[in-house]
Amino acid sequence: AQRVTQPEKLLSVFKGAPVELKCNYSYSGSPELFWYVQYSRQRLQLLLRHISRESIKGFTADLNKGETSFHLKKPFAQEEDSAMYYCALSRMDSSYKLIFGSGTRLLVRP
Amino acid sequence: DTGVSQDPRHKITKRGQNVTFRCDPISEHNRLYWYRQTLGQGPEFLTYFQNEAQLEKSRLLSDRFSAERPKGSFSTLEIQRTEQGDSAMYLCASSLGRGDKAFFGQGTRLTVV
Predict the structure, then answer these.
(1) C-alpha angle B87/A8/A104, rounded to 5°?
(2) What per-residue confidence (pLDDT) applies to B1?
(3) Rounded to an integer, what distance in angstroms lies between the CA atom of residue A106 and that of residue B68?
(4) Once rounded to an integer, what is the mean pLDDT over residues A25-40?
(5) Do A49 and A63 meet the contact criterion of CB atoms below 8 Å apart?
(6) Averaged over A66-81, what is the pLDDT?
(7) What is the dihedral of CA A30, A104, A108, B9, to 10 degrees?
(8) B102–A100: do the CB atoms touch at under 8 Å?
(9) In this complex, do A4 and B48 lie within 8 Å of one another by their Cβ atoms?
(10) pLDDT score recorded for residue B10
(11) pLDDT by residue (tens digit) across B82-103?
């Protein structure tokens, strides 16, 4: 069965510190991996997807198929990065539905 | 706001009552998804439409749940004989096509008392 695991419920760092939000997945095929973010009182929105291989707001994520991981990283956290982050995978089948992890709350302290 | 809109934003209902939620996707998006999110969890897939056809339903979608997208535009999700376990945030998302970016609505928070 497909599953996405985010082991940390809460990650608290100081402004300017590096951030790494962990995500591991289980899937027998080749999924597409995503990071979604939800800022306070806002809707869920796509942050980045692995096939784009881009950096958004300073965040990057590399798909490691050997370790089945897709960790989200940022070298210097900003207070405005405080939000709920969800890792998700899609099987790239006809539905392209998303399977989400349980989320990690990132708190960046001044 | 030209994004995905959901109505109502909040719904409190007594156990046993029926409720209906509406989702208006982004215009011209032919894919529409419903997800459910409970406290402390990520969204879980419920069902999806391509145009007016409902092509997949999760096992989470019991017989008390029904979704429609009659003209391939807006969609409704109805829950009959609500139970306390139905209390959750119900999210709608739409995308232009397969593999395209999904845009989420702000959700409808259902509380069953």
Answers:
(1) 55
(2) 53
(3) 37
(4) 91
(5) no
(6) 96
(7) 110
(8) no
(9) no
(10) 98
(11) 999 999 999 999 999 888 889 9
Distance CA A39, CA A84 (A): 6
The two three-digit tokens of residue B34, written as one number = 């419903």
Q: What is the CA radius of gyration of chain B?
A: 13
Q: Which residues of A touch B98 (CB under 8 A)?
A: 94, 96
- Determine the Cα–Cα distance for residues B45 and B111; give it in Å rounded to an integer: 19
Who wins on pLDDT, A1 or A14?
A: A14
Burial zone of B71 (CB within 10 Å; 0-12 exposed, 13-18 middle, 19+ buried): exposed
| Average pLDDT score over residue span A13-27 | 96
Strands A104-109 and B53-57: unpaired
Q: Tokens in use for B46?
A: 């419920």
Q: Which pair of structure tokens corresponds to residue B39? A: 């406290």
**Structure tokens belonging to residue A99:** 């399977």
- For the record, the structure tokens of B60 come out as 């989470």
Sort strands B10-13 and B108-112 into parallel, antiparallel or unpaired: parallel
Task: Go through chain B and tell me how many residues it has.
Answer: 113
From chain B, the residues in CB contact with A50 under 8 A are none
